[in-house]
Every structure is written in C-alpha cells, then in structure tokens.
Amino acid sequence: MKIKFTLFAVLLFAGILSTYAQGGQRRTVDERVQMSVGRIADSLSLNAAQKTDAQSTFSAYYTSMDKLREGLMPGKRPEKADMDKVTELRDAKLKIIFTEQQFNKYKEMEASMRQRNSQRPVGQ
Fold this sequence. Notes:
By secondary structure, the chain is mainly alpha-helical. 79% of the residues lie in helices and 0% in strands. It has one domain.
C-alpha cells in the first residue's frame, strides 16, 4: 500500500511539473516590451522621450504579433509575409524615433540576437 501511494505521489508531482514547464513560457506584452527596451536602452543611449516612444512602438508590435498568432494551433507560425509587414512597420517607427546611428546599431544588435537564437539547439 505504501509503495502504491508513493508511486502515485511521484507521478502526480511529475505531471504537475511538466504542466508548469510547458505553460509558463509565454510572457505578457508588457513584460516583452520592458525586456526589449531594457535590452537596447543602455546600448543605444536612449533619452527618456525615446524610451517612451520605443515602448509604445514595441507594445503595438507585440500586440500585433499576438493577434497574428490567435487561433493558430500550438507550435504553428503565422504567415511570414504577415509577420514581415508588422516588423517593417515597427522598424519604420523606430527609424523615426532613433537617430540614424542608433537605428543602425539597433539593427546590428537584432541581427546578432537572431544569429545566436538560430544557433541554439532545438528545445532551448
């Protein structure tokens, strides 16, 4: 009887852990905005007005991306053309907010982050 109870408890605990591990990966729009602006603010030497404008731009970007993902099966991606439109709109707004040097540095940072992410093993 003790063995059955212990086995049940272990299986229940493992099930709970796996459920939390799968569901806890999606951040809110505000969390993603803060993370993105926080990542670039120091490197680009953004002033307060630029930070505020960048936050509203990233907020609109992440909200639009979430809308593209609505109704899709888990693991499916929206159409690349639709994602590119949203990204181009974001970049056009950021180009107005940032100086030319800041924008060029931002694009370099973005490219290096994409490269790092594509080199990660699947599942990380």
